[in-house]
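We give this protein:

***
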Amino acid sequence: MRFLSFTVTTLCVALMVSPALAKDKKHDKPMDKEAMMELWKQLGTPGEPHKQFAALAGSWTTSTKEWMEPGKPAMESTGSAEMKMLLDGRFLYQELNGQMMGQPFNGIGIDAYDNMTKKYMTAWMDSMGTGIFMMEGTASPDGKTITLRGSHPEPGGGKMSHRAIWKLIDDNTQQFDMYGAHHGQKETKMMEITYTRKP
């Protein structure tokens, strides 16, 4: 209900403000309310990227490799993930349960494709922190490889930048690779998660 109220309020404000802003632009005709409503409707309608998300809904087993230091053997673990669509097919929700650095690990993610910005976005939160990690990016022409980028502050100061490669291999297999660089240093592979759909 809060989401609906926020959306309606935003739309109303946009309808009032957008034509006024359009008048201030030289050579631009103001957009009438009906056209603005139609544009908002189009931008709010799930498209092909959202259909691709919907195909990922279901139960998955996960196989994770983590590299604590470059050149050292990876720590391996298994887990599970549940994925489902939210808000009438607009967002992909994931719950992941497994191990991280030898400890129980639980995470929640929400993936989106913003029709307005033409970008993929992900919000991630888990049992190892109290913040929400955000990334955004684009996909390959076939939509099967999504590249996301983000950064977060480190406890000792500075920032760590991340690059994630999300590969939708087939209907039953996906892979998520995470790379990171401390304080602008050389990027290294930190994690690899292979998702296999449960029978």
